[in-house]
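Batch 3, record 17
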Amino acid sequence: MSIEIPEGSEVKVEKNSALYEGRAMPSPEGVLIIKLGNGYNVGLKLDPNLKILEIKERARKKPIKRLVVEKMGGKTIAILGTGGTIASYVDYTTGAVHPTRSTGELLNYIPEIRDVANVRAKILFSVLSEDLGPKHWKILAKEVKKEFEEGCRGVVISHGTDTMSFTAAGLAFMLRELSGPVILTGAQRSADRPSSDGFLNLLYSTRAALTDLGEVVVAMHDTLSDDRITLHRACRVRKMHTSARGAFKSIDADPIGYVNSDRVYLREHDKKGDNTIIDTRMDEKVGILYSYPGLDYDVFEAFSERHNGIVIAGTGLGHCPDAILPGIKMAIDKGKAVVMTSQCIHGKVNLAVYSRGRELLKAGIIACDLLPEVAMIKLGWVLGHTKDQEKIGEMMRKEYTHEFGGRRFIDG
Amino acid sequence: MVEVKIGLEIHQQLDTSKLFCDCPSTLVDRPDSTFERFLRVTESEVGEIDRAALYEYEKRRSYVYQCPQECSCLVEMDEEPPHEVNGEALDIALTVSKLLKAKAVDVICFMRKIVIDGSNTTGFQRTALISLDGEVDGVGIATICLEEDSARKVKENEKKAYYNIDRLGIPLIEVATKPEIKSPDMARDVALKIGMLLKRTKVKKGLGTIRQDLNISISGMPKVEIKGVQSLTQIPRVLQNEIVRQENLAEIKEELRNRIESKKDFEFKVFDLTDALSHSKSRIVADGLEEGKKCLAIKLRGFKGLLSKSGELRLAKELMSYARIKGMFHGDELPGHGITESEVDEVTKTLNLGEDDSYVILVDEENRAKTSLEKIFQRAILCFDGVVPEVRKALENCYTEYMRPMPGSARMYPETDIPFTYVDEERLSELEVPETIEGRISKLRALGANEQQSMQLLNTGYDVIFEELVGGFGEARIVLRMLNNTIPELEDKGLDTSNIDLKILGGILAEYKKGRFGKEAIPDILGEICRERKEVREVVKALGLKEVELREVELFIKRLIEESEEMIKEEGRRAFRPLMGRVMEEYRGKIDGKVLSEMLKERLEEVTDEVED
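Prediction for the assembled complex:
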């Protein structure tokens, strides 16, 4: 069909003797989606049966101005946006979900924040969380430092949930000292839905941001109920469910605290200091290789050639097939670092129990009680500081930011 | 006669699994877990907030959901995105569209209809327009939609509402007529016809599986929506009451306009009567003050005599349901309720009441009383405009009460989790469209049901079961009795008959044919199956000996009638007396005389009927 129907215009069309009147919406190829007067969208194929009776350009609505009353005096926190769905709205012309662009919009969604603190919000990136990486972490670390230097009591980072724990771990290594809490939070249901968990997550995160915490934490729903959020240490947290609100769990470690309607509870934690010191040197050529039966030498070699540091998510206590053993040896001989973790996620890595583990140790592999993703980020950070193999091993085995699993008990 | 325009919205549950997940569409009272949530208003895609949504949000309640694992999963809990739309349900919606001659759209777009009263865990109901512009018995069908049913409210208080999510997600077809129905009786007939057509497809049967909403406007006044009319027979009465209510409001409007120049003359001001009534003998006042509550009042200018007119439909009741309060005092009923004439004088003086003025007094905590009075005042001012567009809830007594403001189109935005569904010609032409109602009736008649019985079977949707059972067992009379009498009677007694299906009814007939019990026992057996949710055999076994005896009695009566053929031929139904004597001789004391007489009467009628034929 040759007739152009601009989005947003008022249209009147006829098909199979039924009349359709409404507004033209963003439509897929070959289809006209109309929002009818009753609010329903319907789609009609652009075929010869479709008779267009009228197209009227619609006067654009002026954006609604909202009054934002900023509380004067009192404490201020910063909210840094990275493009997650925590504070987003649906654009009716494109149907896409966009992040809010200003403090005003944010406070319009969650006016209760005004009772907690003054807020300065800044949108740093508008990218999907799977596209955030070390380059973004570096910018974030610098912004965090800047916010603290400008007098903010705490920083809340809104982040897509997919890679939130990666960014949290990256920041935990880059922010060597903190003069306030850094809280990462997000939503498993986007903020354009009345049931979004993001409202509570963000509101309670602002309260956690006013504590004396000197660590990077992830703050998300504890369960499927809107009753409390749990604060997880950056390097022990993992997204353990694709869609549920309570997806984030501390692995082999207790959460550091929680926030409910009454209080912010924190167990033993690092207290904030006087300064924020950042150290963002990081080698980005690190990667994780998931071990599986049949993993062969060629695959390992191709993988190791592209990386300076290789983390293996091994089976069980930290094992991998015999076939890649020569590859591991060769990589280490070439000066690369190879670290063993476990794909079991729960439980310690221990290479002393079986012969394969002992062979790996002999080959020079570094065994770490780290989650595979955290091991990769830590290795990148360590390689940013040294390429000396002995030094690498030393640094990987040293605890910098509560990244090691603690004593194990039943139930993780 | 006033000109009335009525539209219907019929919601029918489908007999498939749920619309956006694989859970079965069953109701289960015992929850395995619960969770609690809040809902917030969000803006629609055009940057507007819906009035109705805002109204619910202002209540700031939390919602507690009960989850039976048997029929709910993470999708109902809003913990997992919806799956692809149920193809079977979509086909049924398209079939209904064909039956009602509505034109299907080419591309189906699911929408989110914002509903934040907690009845949907997501805060919206997923709904899609499937077809439009149909017709039934000369009344236009505006739209046919496919949507998910809401959660079932279990209980509520000021702070929390409790829902069971078993019903959430059951596919519903919504058929909305154009406002072309001219009378309450016609509304019932059209609803009946649509119901019958719906039951030609795979839909759920029984109590609560079909719900009717009405909308009505009189002589150009605004439209009012009435939700949740429980049965077809109530439709005319609900509508008649609504017509009277609207006429009353029109009268009140005229009277008010005669008394008062403009809306601007109303002023909201709260008066504290706590001191003035501090010695009141009224229980409500005295108890309230004891608890530290206050007596607050507002003046309602020009309302004298307008608040308690017309019984159930009195304006005072309207004000209370609008403010969501259970009780209040008002000028038209005082002195009374323990408040004396001298106290009324005191109130009149304090409020500086004019001749035409009335007032409302509340006994409550100060802030709550103020909020309620403000609501009452808001509703009172609206009387200046007569009928107000709003959504009302149908009550069991066929009256209605205020529910919420009329929602606008701002409540709809696209459900981005569900891809568009393209409907092609092939899919439409492959749909099996059920027979016409006329064709069905002639088939049912051929199996032994008369015209009226056939209509009832089609109405309740038991026509297919009837065919199956009579095809398998014969016994059309017994089958008709079970479907057309026994089941409705059990429902009238408040029993849930939803588990009665072909298998159970067939089981009963099979056992009956084996001579395990007399047909008189069938209602008891069915009742027991509904109550205890047991298998047919179990129930029959539990009924035990008594039934064997009944069967024996039946055989005895049968023999007796055969032996007395001559006498019966001569005496006709008068033969009952001597025959009953014989039966009583045999079973006196063993079996209830009433049961015996009914059994005999029935057998005798069969024979005499045959004779007369």
